[in-house]
Structure to design on (750 residues):
């Protein structure tokens, strides 16, 4: 019999499911259907009674008045001169394309017809009226988020490329109009009501969405692919076979070589299944353009159906609308639960959050676990004090029917069976609720700027307190403030990876050096932080801190807590007394942002080129990443990329020397002078890229940029030094920080 080890903690959800698995692996497959009533989206339905004629006439008149001669010459017909057939051609062409669009069920993607919509009679028509019609049709159907592809260069007029040519001629106006529409559809919530004017209690009035998209049903293996146990082929039920494939897919991964992973999931021989999936992977890589395009259309259709919510009448993107498929839990680092089975999430496990009166139908044959209407924030203080009978935090909230601040921003929620933690489907970072939350976070950090002086003075005094509890709190706060350590929480190492923060440091995580590298009172940190990333640092500290650490460690074993009279909740409770809303995390945000501001002021030279200024920005960002311990492994392709870049530099140097020598002979050659200047700038750019790439090979700049750095610092810097914001933020990041880009002036200072 095939046996698997699962998390044996009993839960109400999927209890039968787990019992079957422990016996013979007949895992109950979820239906996973995605059918149901589609979310009504009036914003995507355009009014068909647009003023087609006036619009096309305006385009025609504009093109006739301009002295362009780039259009392809074709015979003039009565249609071109504004005859009776001009209007029907425009209307019918648009209507026919619209019907074709609906029939193919394509979702909000730019539409390029494969066939002409008119007979040969319309072929000799000038491109002006017809391009107008095509432009109007495309404008109606373009999505809000797909980028236009650049128009291809026009070719000579032939019957085969006529449609492409006309589409190309209208691409530029379509792109401009599409961008204008995108600007119109942006919800500038910060202009309607500034964030500081909101009381922060009610987060939304109406919320409507489609619900989550469930994982697809399991597709059984081909009959010739058999599961083998002790070398003998065996027939499994489809559900048991599905679980076996989870492991088979990972045979080539490092996880299957880890004892903990194999202990949690009994190692079984599945070489045939593994080979099958490897062949399927190769087939997927070898897909044709048509197959990739068809898959993209399916994904776009799913995104159009499930990827948006209506919040207070505005269309907002959803972050990730797909529920995680079943599989094997991996975790990070040496997680004790790696290899445990993640069960399939059923609709009966999911809680829906929406406004009253909104009906979100579950998949056919299923029902939701619960439907809530949570739109208000309730604050909790000192929950540990008001809980009783060892009631868990989750149980307390559930029993009281109250909601956390986080609750109002989620659309769907369920409890996963491995770590028994809540999972959420949230709005996209570009949404109003996320933007407001970011604004509040950075404003709180700015508020700390005015309070940090007295706070520091106080913890310096507390180093000499008569109470050991206060001394430990002061030293911990010193670490959090000076070295941007995370606060850290107590963990059960049987349930989670052994990662620590400041308050959960053990004696084994630090070493004290009276003198090291010509520095006195040095503390050596060495521990695993968040995501099992090693934090190693040697730093000089205040003499009082050093002496207190010696006292804290006296008579303790290496595995004992360094701060045995302190925890995160008591530290945060103390901080709230110093400033409203202050927590240990606010210190991390404050120190990251103030470091970026100081470094930019110090490193930026107004006379530098754009590339030199960007190098200064990345160096400032890197100082923040080092402070926050945002590390990464050196990319496997780093050496090859550096070699390629160095070859480009060598070639450019050679070209530069040749042009320089030639310019000495022809000093008055303006064309050669321009070429010399251009090549010189290109060489400087390549050298800057080489330096930047090498300096950042082990540093992750993106984490701090997205989570800890006030975007207004970067936006103001860009505006002050005429740096395109696209050089700092990607399109997704610009959407996330649209509020900062729109409202920040160049004189902003954190």
């Amino acid at each position: 019999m095939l046996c698997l080890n699962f998390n044996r903690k009993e839960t109400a959800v999927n209890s039968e499911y787990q019992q079957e698995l422990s016996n013979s692996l007949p895992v109950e497959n979820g239906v996973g259907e995605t059918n149901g009533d589609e979310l009504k989206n009036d914003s995507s339905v355009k009014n068909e009674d647009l003023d087609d004629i006036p619009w096309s006439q305006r385009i025609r008149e504009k093109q006739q008045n301009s002295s362009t001669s780039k259009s392809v010459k074709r015979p003039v017909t009565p249609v071109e001169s504004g005859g009776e057939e001009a209007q029907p051609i425009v209307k019918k062409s648009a209507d026919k394309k619209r019907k074709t669009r609906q029939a193919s069920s394509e979702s909000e993607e730019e539409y390029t017809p494969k066939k002409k919509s008119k007979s040969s009679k319309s072929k000799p028509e000038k491109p002006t009226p017809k391009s107008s019609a095509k432009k109007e049709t495309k404008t109606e159907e373009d999505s809000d988020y797909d980028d236009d592809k650049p128009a291809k260069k026009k070719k000579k007029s032939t019957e085969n490329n006529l449609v492409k040519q006309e589409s190309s001629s209208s691409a530029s106006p379509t792109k401009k109009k599409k961008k204008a529409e995108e600007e119109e559809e942006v919800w500038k919530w910060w202009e309607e009501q500034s964030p500081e004017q909101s009381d922060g209690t009610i987060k939304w009035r109406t919320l409507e969405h489609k619900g989550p998209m469930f994982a697809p049903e399991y597709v059984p293996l081909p009959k010739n692919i058999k599961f083998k146990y002790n070398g003998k082929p065996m027939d499994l039920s489809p559900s048991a076979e599905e679980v076996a494939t989870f492991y088979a897919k990972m045979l080539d991964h490092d996880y299957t070589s880890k004892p903990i992973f194999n202990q949690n999931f009994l190692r079984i021989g599945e070489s045939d299944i593994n080979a099958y999936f490897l062949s399927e992977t190769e087939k997927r890589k070898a897909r044709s353009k048509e197959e990739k395009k068809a898959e993209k259309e399916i994904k776009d259709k799913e995104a159009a159906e499930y990827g948006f919510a209506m919040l207070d009448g505005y269309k907002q993107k959803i972050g990730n609308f797909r529920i995680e498929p079943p599989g094997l839990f991996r975790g990070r680092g040496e997680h004790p639960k790696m290899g445990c089975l993640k069960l399939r999430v059923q609709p009966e496990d999911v809680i829906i959050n929406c406004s009253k009166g909104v009906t979100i139908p579950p998949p056919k044959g299923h029902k939701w676990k619960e439907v809530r209407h949570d739109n208000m924030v309730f604050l909790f203080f000192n929950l540990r004090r008001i809980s009783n009978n060892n009631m868990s935090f989750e149980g307390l909230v559930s029993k009281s029917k109250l909601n956390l601040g986080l609750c109002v921003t989620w659309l769907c929620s369920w409890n996963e069976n491995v770590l028994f933690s809540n999972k959420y489907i949230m709005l996209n970072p570009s949404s109003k609720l996320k933007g407001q939350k970011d604004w509040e976070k950075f404003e709180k950090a700015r508020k700390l700027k005015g309070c940090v002086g007295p706070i520091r003075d106080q913890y310096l005094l507390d180093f000499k307190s008569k109470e050991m509890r206060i001394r430990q709190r002061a030293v911990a706060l010193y670490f959090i403030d000076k070295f941007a350590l995370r606060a850290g929480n107590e963990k059960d190492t049987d349930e989670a990876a052994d990662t620590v923060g400041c308050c959960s440091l053990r004696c084994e995580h630090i070493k004290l050096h009276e003198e090291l590298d010509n520095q006195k009172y040095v503390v050596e940190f060495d521990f695993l932080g968040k995501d099992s990333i090693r934090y190693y640092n040697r730093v000089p500290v205040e003499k009082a801190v050093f002496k207190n650490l010696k006292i804290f460690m006296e008579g303790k074993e290496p595995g004992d807590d360094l701060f045995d009279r302190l925890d995160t909740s008591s530290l945060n409770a103390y901080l709230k007394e110093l400033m409203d809303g202050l927590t240990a995390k606010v210190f991390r945000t404050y120190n990251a942002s103030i470091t970026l501001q100081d470094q930019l002021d110090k490193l930026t030279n107004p006379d530098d080129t754009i590339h030199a200024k960007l190098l200064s920005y990345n160096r400032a960002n890197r100082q923040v990443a080092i402070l926050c311990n945002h590390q990464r492994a050196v990319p496997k392709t780093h050496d090859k990329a550096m070699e390629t870049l160095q070859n480009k530099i060598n070639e450019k140097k050679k070209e530069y020397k040749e042009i320089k020598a030639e310019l000495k002979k022809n000093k008055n050659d303006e064309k050669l002078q321009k070429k010399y200047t251009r090549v010189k700038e290109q060489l400087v750019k390549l050298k800057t890229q080489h330096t930047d790439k090498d300096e950042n090979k082990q540093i992750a700049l993106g984490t701090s940029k997205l989570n800890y750095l006030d975007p207004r610092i970067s936006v103001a810097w860009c505006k002050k030094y005429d740096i395109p914001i696209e050089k700092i933020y990607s399109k997704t990041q610009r959407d996330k920080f649209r509020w900062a880009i729109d409202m920040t002036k160049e004189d902003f200072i954190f």
Remarks:
- DSSP finds 26 helices and 14 strands in the chain.
